[in-house]
Amino acid sequence: MTKKHATSKFMETDPPKKPSRIQQRNRRKILDAALDVFSAQGYRGATLDQIAETAGLSKPNILYYFGGKEEIHITLLNQLMETWLDPLVEMSADGDPLEELLSYVQRKLDMARDLPRESRLFANEILQGAPRMGPHLESHLKPLFDEKCTLIQGWIDHGKLAEIDPRHLLFSIWSTTQHYADFEAQVHVLLATTGAEHADEYLQTLFTKLLTPAR
Amino acid sequence: MTKKHATSKFMETDPPKKPSRIQQRNRRKILDAALDVFSAQGYRGATLDQIAETAGLSKPNILYYFGGKEEIHITLLNQLMETWLDPLVEMSADGDPLEELLSYVQRKLDMARDLPRESRLFANEILQGAPRMGPHLESHLKPLFDEKCTLIQGWIDHGKLAEIDPRHLLFSIWSTTQHYADFEAQVHVLLATTGAEHADEYLQTLFTKLLTPAR
DNA sequence: GGGTTACTTTACCAAATGGTAAAAAAACTT
DNA sequence: AAGTTTTTTTACCATTTGGTAAAGTAACCC
Fold this sequence. Notes:
Two copies of one chain form a homodimer. With 215 residues, chain A is mainly alpha-helical. The first copy, chain A, is built from ten helices and no strands.
């Protein structure tokens, strides 16, 4: 009965029949549980049993929907990549440069707050040297990064922004915003509150001062 | 022959006889190898076999020097905590506030460059919710953090620095500097060079603009 | 309602992994 | 050199973990 040599029985291309309601529901449950576990424990720290229990399914049942642990992880990373780059994609050449960048910062911070699991999943993957994501970074992130760097450099050249290195600017936006999700355990101890209280205001100030051109 | 209920046979307090040359050498080799492996794979991702091979010792031999995997990890974290907080400790009330903070930023960046393994070990631990470090954060980091926040706030109150939240200032210093070590895999892809080329200049500019008081 | 297909469970397994016991080999001590 | 202590190796072990086979159950289709 085993047909094809696809990684998963759901990756076949011949009959693109849409997944049943049960399939959709269970795959969603599994991916959600896996996000929980992978983001909290890292890839190797996560176990299929944990994922199964969190999802409320049995381990073999999970392996009915996914080819294996790694396939679940890769599926998550691929899904993540899209939403993760969204805020940057939205930053467009239209509109005021400073406003565009500041609202990008805000979107990124909101994202870290709303999707901390995703942020940690990503952080874990990069920390370990991006073993399952290297190609994706090269093919998706790099072009977008270069494009936006050029855009920002253009703004600078037109005197719309202070003269700073666009690449490091993006790095600092990413690091400062994601910090609140990735290092939450530390932030929580130090602020003794649930998170980034006045982070919004602080970061807006930071990047305003950094980016406002000296006239 | 087993005496005491200490976690390790090297934690006994009665005969504080100094460790032999062999002991010192092997413990150092083990800790160095463990730093390699833990920082690259995370706690659960690291295996004793990997550590043993990297250290050039057999697994049981490693367990002769340490009580177990966790003890090695904890030893590393404890050692790390000291050097890690050093740059912040050095920031003193004497000297120009802006200079003090900027050279703190520089020291932190140098540290991320010189000790990337340590940075990643720490990042891994915090990412997983600081399961073996929570108390340490509370007892060591928190007091230091509060002290330095007060110091910075004092500087601000005297008009020596712009009015910003000291807590978030420290967060942004940590995140921006450590980013180059923790997210090296990503930075490397995007810069297509071995690391933080002009990070020094960029971060100095960033924090100068942020901290210079409007007069 | 009978048959086919989709889904779930039960019972396993092989490899990996943290760890131990005890013998063997070095290293020190006198 | 003999005896004692320290260090290393060999041979295991119990558990965990990713994964599978096959039988059972529920859904769907006519």
